[in-house]
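To: structure subgroup
Subject: Chain for Friday's discussion

All,

I'm putting the inputs and outputs inline so they're searchable in the archive.
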Amino acid sequence: MKKQLGGSRKRLVLFAIGGGLTVIVIAFLLVYFVIFPTSSPKPFTLSSTTATGASSASAGSTARQSSATTGLSGQWQVVSGSQAGYRVREKLAFLPAESDAVGRTSQITGSATFTQSKDTVTITSASFKVAVNTLTSDRSMRDEKIHEIGLESSRFPTATFALQTPVTISVSALNGKVAHVSVTGTFNIHGVSKKETLPVEMSLSGSTFEAVGSLTFPWSEFGMSAPSIGGFVNVTEKATMEFDLHMQRS
């Protein structure tokens, strides 16, 4: 009888400890994701006012304006100011988080080849590489976890893109304005390659060419599973890859 009572007490103590730990974890996550929600940067975008303002500053003379719209042929390299990363919607248990989880990096390399014929420019080839193992967000715990789950950036430290179909744009639609084009290429994410077509905004401001776009896809499309932390923090079944590329002619 005493042994039974002793065993029952031990079980009660273990249940109490386990319950206490669960309460602590839940309380921590509530504070982490609800009371103090993440501060998410807005999606990348190009606006016509920004593009026009940037170009007008460099178009103070006819000669300057002419240089921005002629001689675009050649190799264009990724330069500083470029960023790429992910955007996902997090959930705490059954409650939606108040903001997206966003991680970004400026560790991007690559180039594009332009050819110009009178009033049109064609991007004939382009390839880019992103060091996804350098992605950072506003939460160090999240940054550590994506090395092991979801993106698994410790196993797959880079993501790449290679243009498959040339893109032709009117120079008049590009210079100081925002051109909206469809871009088709092959993404390699998490070691899986997929051909995708996505909308991209492009603009030429002075000597800098900028391209902004995003791709939303189910995690499974690139062989990934939606991350989950202890069943308390989950993300929705789709992820978004987004980028803002700045290039200058080499």
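Points worth raising on Friday:
Residues 1-36 form one domain.
The chain has two domains: 1-36, 39-249.

D.
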